[in-house]
Amino acid sequence: MTIDFHTHCFPDALAPRAMASLSATSAPFGVYAITDGTASDSEAHLRRAGVDGGVVCNIATNARQQTKVNDFAIHLNGTSRILTALGSVHPASENIESELDRLQAAGIRGIKLHPDYVGIEIDDPRFTPIFDGCEARGMFVITHAGFDPISPDHIHASPAMLRRVLDRHPALTLIAAHVGGMHECSGVLEHLVGSRIYIDTSMADLMAKVPEEAPLVKEILTSHDPARILFGSDLPWTDPAGNLAYLHSLGMDERVYGENALSLLR
Ligand SMILES: [Zn+2]
């Protein structure tokens, strides 16, 4: 059972506009979409890569959008046979608690946060009610970590910030995307490797193409607890097949490909 823990797709009606705007942001950094942004195209790419399930990391980029984003997540979970959608809440929302209750009642096990899109650093107290709410409900949080093209000059979730969140919320299950921090490998080794944080492997293959980063990505993935590493690609921005090939080249523990994901999603 192979599960890609980090994918994105959008409601069919919104996909063209969402993909056009996201692609305009990522293209200058050499990152191009390989799907049309719809759930069905995501499913097709996952199947082609030999992946059995995909976790959809929805993001509420403003408080107004939150309900619609979560409606889509709930709808997707009712209709897709291979996609499992996460919810999202926004720090400026006035109904964080009731929205987390609604997600939980719908069987959603975790939420995705993207501090760069929200424009608030991950260890800012404005995120505290969200972490407290997830901690109390046993819901996990996956967050973008490290560099993002939307905010190239300001990192909103550095390894040191993530470490502070972990320390403040001892019962929180926290997952840092992009091997703990996109293009932040030395910080990840200093602050996060060996801690109880989970990391996903999205963009690992891309980072490993940067000669000075390659040995550090490998060091992170081979020294962090394998029970806390989740295969993920960030589809549509990279191909799950490439990420899988890279992980296989490192001889990663089998649990990384699906078992760890299943135990979080159960
Ligand atoms: Zn992503």
Describe the 3D structure.
The chain is of the alpha/beta class and 266 residues long. The protein has a single domain, classed as TIM Barrel (Alpha-Beta Barrel). It has twelve helices and eight strands. The protein has a five-stranded parallel sheet with strand order 4-5-6-7-8, with helices on both faces. β2, α3 (66-79) and β3 form a beta-alpha-beta unit. α4 (96-105) runs parallel beside α6, α7 packs parallel to α8 (185-191) and α8 (185-191) runs parallel beside α10 (214-223). The chain is globular. The mean pLDDT is 97. The structure holds zinc ion. Residues 6, 8, 57, 234 line the site of zinc ion (ZN).
What topology emerges from the helices and strands here?
Layout: E1 3-7, H1 15-26, H2 39-48, E2 53-56, H3 66-79, E3 83-85, H4 96-105, E4 110-113, H5 115-118, H6 128-137, E5 140-143, H7 159-168, E6 174-176, H8 185-191, E7 198-200, H9 204-207, H10 214-223, E8 229-230, H11 240-249, H12 259-265
Parallel strand pairs: 1-2, 2-3, 4-5, 5-6, 6-7, 7-8
Helix pairs in contact: 4-6, 7-8, 8-10
This protein binds zinc ion.
Bound molecule kinds, no repeats: zinc ion
Low-confidence stretches: none
- First CA to last CA: what distance? 14 Å
Structural class: alpha/beta
Radius of gyration: 17 Å
Write down the domain tally: 1
* CATH architecture descriptor name: Alpha-Beta Barrel
Please report the total strand number as a whole number.
8
Strand content: 5-15%
Provide a concise account of the structure shown:
The chain has 266 residues and is of the alpha/beta class. It has 12 helices and 8 strands. Helix content is 41%, strand content 11%.
